[in-house]
Amino acid sequence: MTHRTEPERDICDVADLIAQLALKLNEHPLNVKHPDGWICRVDDNWTIAANGTHMLVTVGDGTKLTGVTLQPFNFAVWWNGWLAGTLNPYGGVIAGHPAGANEDTLIAALKKRIEEVT
């Protein structure tokens, strides 16, 4: 019999797709290959960052992305260089702009990028 200290929770779609993209791009394990955080340009609009470690990580690439501190196993997403959301594997907050930065356009961009990787 397995004892669980936390109730089981589903992994959110965005976190699952970010993990799939990291696997497709052979960027795993993130904690070894990217101990200071992984930043990935998804398309012309979306950029993501992931912290695959057990420690706080401040990610940056010398642009507006610089200085965002991520909790362990958390993610940040940017739309056209502007911070548009922060997530963990079980959910989070993403901007809700009807014509641009929103969860649906992020999911579509992640799926398209995953399909494009050979």
Features:
7 strands; 118 residues; globular; two-stranded antiparallel ribbon; single chain; five-stranded antiparallel sheet; 3 helices; alpha+beta
Number of strands: 7
Rg, Å, rounded: 14 Å
Q: Classify the secondary structure makeup into a structural class.
A: alpha+beta
Overall shape: it is globular
Amount of beta strand: 25-35%
Measured between the Cα atoms of the first and last residue, the distance is 42 Å
Note the run of SSEs as H and E: HHEEEEEEEH
| Strand neighbour order, sheet with most strands | 1-2-5-6-7
Low-confidence stretches at least 5 residues in length (pLDDT < 50)?
Answer: none
Average pLDDT value? 89
Helical stretch count?
Answer: 3
Helix residue percentage: 25-40%
Strand count, sense and barrel status of the largest sheet are:
5 strands, antiparallel
Number of domains: 1
Describe this structure in words.
- The protein is an alpha+beta fold and 118 residues long.
- The chain has one domain.
- The strands form two sheets. A five-stranded antiparallel β-sheet has the order 1-2-5-6-7, with helices on one face. A two-stranded antiparallel sheet has the order 3-4.
- It is globular.
